[in-house]
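Continuing the batch. This is chain 6 of the set; chains 1 through 5 are on the previous pages. Same settings as before, nothing changed between runs. Recording input and output for traceability.
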Amino acid sequence: MRESQIRNALRRIEDIVFDATGATLPAEHESRLLNVLSGLAGEHRRARTVENFSHRDVTILLADLRGFTSLSASHPAGVVLDMLNQCFVEMSEAIVRHHGTIDKFAGDSIMAIFADARAAVTCAVEMQMAMDRLNALHRRRHLPELYMGIGVNTGRVMAGLVGSELYSAYALIGEDVSLTSRIEAFSLRGQVLISESTYALCGDFAATGDGMEVYVKGKSGRMQLREVVGIPSLELSVPRQEVRRSPRIAVQLPFSFQRVERKIVVPERMPGTILDVGYHGVLADMRRDVPLHSEIKLGVDLPLVAHNADDIYARVVKRSRDSVAGLEFTSLSAQSNSKLQLFVQMLLQGHEVN
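Output for chain 6:
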């Protein structure tokens, strides 16, 4: 196919798009379509260069389904794919409705970019509302529920096409892209978290909780995040799903504990293993029968932060299989609390316990 024929096909497609939507294709999307047509025609062209990239100030939204791996392992592939497609249809419609651009789907996550921070935050709230409606449908059909965590961040990125003119893909590159992924990792099920840069652009528009300081891998200091709970002027609110108050992460961490009887700590120390840890409690293998509502004192070494937390008091709030128990912290020092939160945040971002 000659160059003139490829250009003619491109114009015809653009006419169809305009007739259907009333909008013209942006230059970057026109270029991507031209590459596809050239590739179909067997036209081999030179590799793209850095001149294709431009710096842009954007707001990035990253949404990720929670527990999707376990869902995939416990349900037929057809059911899983149908649920995933339904979810992504709802999310895509919300993004387009708020003039966002879908950057990519990656497994059970979706990334989108927005020129307007308020539009991005409104979209995130509506995405969580859509998940709530979708879960109501799942319950009626006796299907498992899906939950999504969302992170939103505003910053400067490099944007453009990478690859060759035979095949290329639009890409966002920059520290703020990675930072959005870190923020999303902190979000709980049904939660929307935003960075301070996004809050600065929509703090008078979105209702948020108090700022929370978190450790972010690759940054020297801590950064502040805020949870969006709604958009008052639009009468929108986030239907929170997660009853836990912090992220939880699986570990295999040895600890010791002492029973507390009548407010007296019994001297005998007994060993156990922490199976998952959060800011306010742990799931632990106690290696013995410990009655529900028992009071105990924990001692645990937190190797990533060089701290031995030996002043944590907890209560057994849940009993499960064998000797596994859920422990809720009732008292710990400010230092141990700070170190424990840092420890969890480092684990969330890929640090390994040696």
